[in-house]
């Protein structure tokens, strides 16, 4: 039998350089895969291989075949947050609202308008708080304090009335009338010393009425005119103390009196002429009483003529309170006209 010779050519073995290059490529691929998993490199898009592999097993979940034929387990893929998943989670969290730590945090993605509103709120919150004054509780008594809604016209009328009333009230508060009674001291009692002083306000109310003990010995009480007697000086106020009390009342006020220079002389005091009104030197009073304007008329005569009242009657003496009240009433008769005249011809102090 003849022998059969088979000539089988299996091909030449690959050169060593090709093998070495294949190993380097595999090492490069492993490093690249490692860096891709770490997130340092983006995955390379390779064209899909349509050639099916023979005797290939189906790929397992989480297992990726490598070039060198080894199977390696890849880390689980990160879950991507989508709108559907977030809406589903919100629905599930709404059901679990009773658990506080499961409630989702508010979303920070807002529009431009909402962002501006947030900035305004932050700015306003940073401003210091202004504390409003505490409101006083109103007394619930409709009878004593009724609340009346006034119209603008009525409010203007009320303001004008208040201004007029305020202007009229300024003068009475700052105007007083004074009258003093004197006794005789010094040689033969020819020196007039203060023994009583009375001050009344614009309405005639008594502000001050005291008996005053002169610093010198009293020689003549002049009871017929002054009404002062010895018993009045027992508890009388000393002159220095009384003078200080009187000046506190007169300072800064318009002082009305009849022949008032005699009263100031007894007080050892000088009052500004611009604030002094002497009814014995007001020509308007004399004209109203049908008397010569250049003549000094007595307080008793003017009171009888203009007020139809008798004062300083009898032998018991004068009353300084009565005289001060009569002086103020006389001045009120010519107050408006005389004040206008003084405003145009202001007296020099």
From TrEMBL:
User: What PANTHER family does the record point to?
Assistant: INTERFERON-STIMULATED 20 KDA EXONUCLEASE-LIKE 2, RNA EXONUCLEASE REXO1 / RECO3 FAMILY MEMBER-RELATED
User: Could you tell me the keywords of this UniProt record?
Assistant: Exonuclease, Hydrolase, Nuclease, Nucleus
Q: Which residue ranges have biased composition labelled Basic and acidic residues?
A: 14-23
Polar residues bias locations = 150-170
| Residue ranges that the Swiss-Prot or TrEMBL entry lists as coiled coil | none
Composition-biased stretches (Basic residues): 24-46
**Residue limits of the Exonuclease domain?**
174-340
Give me the Gene Ontology terms describing cellular component: nucleolus
- This one is known as Interferon stimulated exonuclease 20 like 2
Q: What is its main location?
A: nucleus
Pfam families, from UniProt?
RNase_T
Q: Where is this region: Disordered?
A: 1-110, 125-171
Where found, per UniProt? Nucleus, Nucleolus
Q: Recall the GO molecular function terms of this protein's record.
A: 3'-5'-RNA exonuclease activity; nucleic acid binding
Record InterPro entries: ISG20_DEDDh (IPR037433), REXO1/3/4-like (IPR047021), Ribonucl_H (IPR013520), RNaseH-like_sf (IPR012337), RNaseH_sf (IPR036397)
Q: Which organism is it from?
A: Myotis lucifugus (Little brown bat)
């Amino acid at each position: 039998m003849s022998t059969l010779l088979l000539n089988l050519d299996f091909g030449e073995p690959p050169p060593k350089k090709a093998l070495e290059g294949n190993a380097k490529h595999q090492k490069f691929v492993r490093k690249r895969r490692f860096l891709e998993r770490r997130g340092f490199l983006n995955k390379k898009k390779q064209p899909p291989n349509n050639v099916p592999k023979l005797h290939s097993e189906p790929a397992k979940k989480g297992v990726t075949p490598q070039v060198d034929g080894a199977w390696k387990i890849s880390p689980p893929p990160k879950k991507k947050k989508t709108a559907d998943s977030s809406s589903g989670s919100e629905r599930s969290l709404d059901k679990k609202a009773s658990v506080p730590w499961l409630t989702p945090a508010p979303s920070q993605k807002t529009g431009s308008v909402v962002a501006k509103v947030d900035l305004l709120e932050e700015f306003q919150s940073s401003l210091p708080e202004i504390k409003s004054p505490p409101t006083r509780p109103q007394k619930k008594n409709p009878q004593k304090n009724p609340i009346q809604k006034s119209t603008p016209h009525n409010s203007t009328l009320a303001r004008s009335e208040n201004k007029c009333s305020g202007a009229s009230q300024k003068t009475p508060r700052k105007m007083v009338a004074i009258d003093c009674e004197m006794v005789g001291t010094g040689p033969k009692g020819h020196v007039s010393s203060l023994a009583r002083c009375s001050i009344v306000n614009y309405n005639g109310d008594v502000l001050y009425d005291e008996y005053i003990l002169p610093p010198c010995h009293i020689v003549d009480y002049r009871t017929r005119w002054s009404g002062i007697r010895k018993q009045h000086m027992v508890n009388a106020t000393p002159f220095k103390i009384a003078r200080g009390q009187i000046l506190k009342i007169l300072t800064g006020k318009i002082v009305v009196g009849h022949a008032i220079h005699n009263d100031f002389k007894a007080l050892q005091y000088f009052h500004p002429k611009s604030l002094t009104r002497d009814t014995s030197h007001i020509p308007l009073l004399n004209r109203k009483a049908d008397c010569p304007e250049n003549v000094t008329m007595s307080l008793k005569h003017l009171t009888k003529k203009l007020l139809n009242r008798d004062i300083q009657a009898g032998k018991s003496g004068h009353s300084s309170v009565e005289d001060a009240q009569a002086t103020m009433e006389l001045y009120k008769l010519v107050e408006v006209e005389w004040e206008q005249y003084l405003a145009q011809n202001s007296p020099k102090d």
